[in-house]
Specification:
The protein contains 2 helices and no strands. The protein is mostly helical and 44 residues long. The longest helix has 16 residues.
């Protein structure tokens, strides 16, 4: 499995939201934006 830079950034944002126990609107929007950045949504 190849993990891309955007995948690492996405994982970091999600981990932060999980660790602090809250998801702000800004975090939510950042996660969606980053997930859609490369035009591909995959299982990773």
């Amino acid at each position: 499995m190849v993990v891309t830079d955007s995948g690492r950034k996405l994982a970091k944002l999600i981990k932060k939201a999980i660790d602090d126990g809250k998801l702000t609107t800004t975090e939510y929007e950042q996660i969606l934006s980053l997930a859609e950045e490369d035009g591909r949504i995959d299982a990773h």
